[in-house]
Amino acid sequence: MEDQCGDILKSATVMFGERLDPVVLGEAMAITKARTVFVAVGSSLQVQPAAGLAGVAADNGARLIIVNAEPTPYDDRASELCLCCPRSGCAVLRCRAGIC
């Protein structure tokens, strides 16, 4: 999408390799630390620093719930883990702790 001058308009997204706004990241950390439940859906949880929020949540006592097509580095920290196949409408392939 372009504006009237032909410049590309960009939503509040971060492209691979770009730095996150430190204020936004700080707010995300504070919110994450205060949660009792943290749900990560459809993320490899490998791209830092955002992926680290899952660990921050678990470290601060939140129930960590991961729903993903493939294993993640945080699976062993999850209270609930659901491995599903997105091609089949997220039909459950394997689930731990009975959430699926």
UniProtKB/TrEMBL annotation:
Organism expressing this protein natively: Streptomyces brasiliensis
InterPro entries: DHS-like_NAD/FAD-binding_dom (IPR029035), NAD-dep_sirtuin_deacylases (IPR050134), Sirtuin (IPR003000), Ssirtuin_cat_dom (IPR026590)
Pfam families: SIR2
Protein name from the UniProt record: protein acetyllysine N-acetyltransferase
NAD found in the keyword field: yes
The EC number(s) this enzyme carries: 2.3.1.286
Single GO term (MF): NAD+ binding
Keywords: NAD, Transferase
Deacetylase sirtuin-type domain residues: 1-100
Top EC category: transferase
